[in-house]
Design goal:
Layout (H helix, E strand, L loop, with lengths): L2 H19 L2 H5 L1 H11 L1 H12 L3 H20 L7 E2 L6 E8 L2 E5 L7 H12 L3 E5 L5 H13 L7 E4 L3 H9 L3 E7 L2 H13 L3 E5 L4 E5 L5 H13 L9 E7 L3 H13 L19 H16 L3 E4 L2 E2 L5 E2 L1 E4 L15 E7 L2 H9 L3 E2 L1 E5 L3 H10 L4 E4 L14 E2 L2 E2 L12 E8 L1
Parallel strand pairs: 3-4, 3-6, 4-5, 6-7, 8-9, 8-16, 9-14, 13-14, 16-17
Antiparallel strand pairs: 1-2, 2-20, 7-19, 10-13, 11-12, 15-18
Helix pairs in contact: 3-5, 4-5, 5-6, 10-11
Organism: Cruoricaptor ignavus
GO molecular function, one term: succinate-semialdehyde dehydrogenase (NAD+) activity
Protein name: Succinate-semialdehyde dehydrogenase / glutarate-semialdehyde dehydrogenase
Length: 430
């Protein structure tokens, strides 16, 4: 391990002993100031996000605003890690929740501030310290987060941004002071990091890919479903793990719904990423466009019908595509990251559910129906971590975020995130 990295870990180790000794309220007191810093530099940070990974500036502004909301939420949350008294025959009988130590974050490029901070804030509020390897194209965002935390007054070493590669991540996971890892990224990256963590007996939290279902039943508000469906698929240029990627439509409304969805998709045309009115800009890298085109070709070769062609207008920009596919199309078993959607048809709710669950992933799903009995049927039987009814899937600081199956394990956000990187210590005696 390089000397500068060793020094950073040493700083983190020393700070952990001081940081963990603070009360929950004392740690929490830094968050309102951090929210103020994010507010102060909102325009600057938004431009940085758009510059680094190409999302429309309006979406970058929304990302920073969401981070501010999260910081304020955790600044007011109750201490869910307070010691719990347990009624037993013993005089002393309680559970204490104690921080683990240094937590490593391996973060993606698609939401450079939001996904980093939803790892950092709960981890440090629980009494841990955090180090982070950001995606290489978002090192600027990593630096900006570190600077913002310094300006908010967080003690040096509570959070450190590391500009390192995958080799150093493996070295960190082998270091005895690093006690756990949180990764948001691809299924392949998650498997590699979790494997390394397991070898060294380290806990891991994985937020991985998705092939989320967007189910539209015959009694749904079709116009609203089409509007939100297009946004669900195409926001962030289609580069969201919890995007609605598979539109599963009851077949007796196909003639009404499909033209609406096509119409809404057409509204998302590539434009200047720094103009407020732009809905769609470009992918983060040109190589991602090559991958997307390859998936599109494979889907068509496997029998998909083109409803809207995926047209590449530059190395990173596309006019969005929409394909009608059968459930056995191999591309449905993959995560598709980009402005490309798939429509499938189901005769009834049972078939829609079967199609929705027939993928390796289980992140989230969106269900559109006015029938409460029907919505309950889906919420009880969908194999995923989150279900949204008559709205697109989204994340909220107040609610847990996480998937099952190949979409990963562990929980981010809400009060539950405060317990991801602590251990429950039993205290018992006469």
């Amino acid at each position: 391990m390089k000397e500068d990295l060793k020094n950073k870990i040493s700083i983190a180790e020393q700070q952990f002993q001081e940081w963990r000794s603070l009360s929950f309220d004392q740690r929490q007191s830094y968050l309102p100031r951090f929210a103020e810093v994010l507010e102060r530099y909102k325009d600057e940070f938004s431009r940085l996000i758009t510059t680094e990974m190409n999302k429309p500036i309006s979406e970058s502004v929304s990302e920073i605003e969401k981070c501010i909301k999260m910081a304020r939420y955790y600044s007011e949350i109750d201490n869910y890690n307070a010691a719990e008294k347990v009624e037993t025959e013993f005089r002393i009988s309680e559970i204490r929740y104690e921080p683990l130590g240094i937590i490593l974050g391996v973060m993606p490029w698609n939401f450079p501030f939001w996904q980093a901070l939803r790892f950092i804030i709960p981890a440090i509020l629980a009494g841990n310290v955090a180090v982070m390897k950001h995606a290489s194209i978002c090192f600027g965002s990593g630096k900006a987060i570190e600077s913002a935390m310094e300006e908010a007054g967080f003690p040096a070493g509570v959070f450190q941004n590391l500009e390192i590669g995958h080799k150093e991540v493996e070295e960190l996971l082998a270091h005895p002071a690093v006690r756990a890892v949180s990764l948001t990224g691809s299924e392949k990256a998650g498997a590699q990091v979790a494997s390394t963590a397991a070898i060294h007996i380290k806990k891991s939290v994985l937020e991985l890919g998705g092939s989320d279902a967007f189910i539209v039943m015959q009694d749904a508000d079709l116009r609203r479903a089409a509007e939100e469906g297009a946004r669900a698929r195409l926001q962030n240029c289609g580069q969201a793990c919890n995007a609605g990627k598979r539109f599963i439509v009851q077949e007796n409304i196909a003639e009404d719904f499909v033209p609406m969805l096509v119409e809404e998709f057409k509204k998302f045309q590539p434009g200047d990423k720094f103009k407020a009115e732009t809905l769609l800009s470009g992918l983060a890298k040109a190589e991602f466009g090559d991958d997307l085109e390859a998936q599109y070709r494979r889907a068509v070769e496997a029998g998909a019908e083109i409803l809207l062609p995926l047209n590449r207008v530059s190395d990173i920009a596309f006019e969005p595509g929409l394909l009608k596919v059968l459930p056995d199309n191999p591309v449905l078993k993959e995560e598709v990251f980009g402005p490309l959607g798939f429509i499938l048809f189901a005769e009834n709710a049972a078939e829609a559910l079967e199609i929705a669950n027939d993928v390796p992933y289980g992140l989230s799903a969106s269900v559109w129906t006015r029938d409460e009995k029907l919505s309950n049927y889906f919420t009880e039987n969908l194999e995923c971590g989150m279900v949204s009814i008559n709205k697109m899937s989204s994340s909220d600081p107040r609610l847990p975020f996480g998937g099952i199956k190949n979409s990963g394990f562990g929980t981010e956000l809400s009060h539950l995130a405060l317990r991801e990187f602590v251990h429950a210590k039993t205290i018992v005696g006469h």
